Amino acid sequence: MGTSSNVWTYRSTLSQDPAMIDKLVGYDVEASDGHIGKIDEASTETNRNYLVVDTGFWIFGKKRLIPAGVVTRIDHDSRNVYVTMTKDQIKNAPDFDADARPDDEAYYDKFGGYYGEYGW
Question: How far apart are CA 80 and CA 102, in angstroms?
Fold first, then answer.
């Protein structure tokens, strides 16, 4: 299954500036039904933008890769990023693997397929 191109791209209403994306590290992430963690990494790879969220104790210290397409709003004043997913949808997402190679298309296709099920 190929990934949907828009799942990896920030919405046109959000800044595409890599310098602004890099500033997101440390921001809180809010799902549609509550807080899920803090941004640990913000990728600005060409054609594959995503956030890595450290969920802390909430999912037993696991991290989640969240494609940029699910980000709906960024509030720089309060340092919050809002996503369309629920806490359960993010909890059930594939596990993030810090050792995955950037050219491992099958690894990233897992995320594109998972988030693609929710209309992305």
Answer: 27
For position 23, what pLDDT does the model report?
93
- Structural domain total, the chain: 1
CB 35 within 8 A of CB 53: no
Tokens coding 51: 């956030």
CATH of the domain at 12: 2.30.30.240
Q: What is the pTM of this model?
A: 0.89
pLDDT along the chain (120 residues), means of 10: 66 85 95 96 87 86 91 95 95 91 88 81
d(CA 25, CA 12): 21
Find the domain containing 98 and state its range.
Answer: 5-116
Rounded distance, CA 45 to CA 113, Å?
A: 19
Residues sharing a CB contact under 8 Å with residue 16, sequence separation 6 or more, in sequence order: 10
CA distance between the termini of the chain: 14
84 vs 82: CA distance, rounded Å: 7
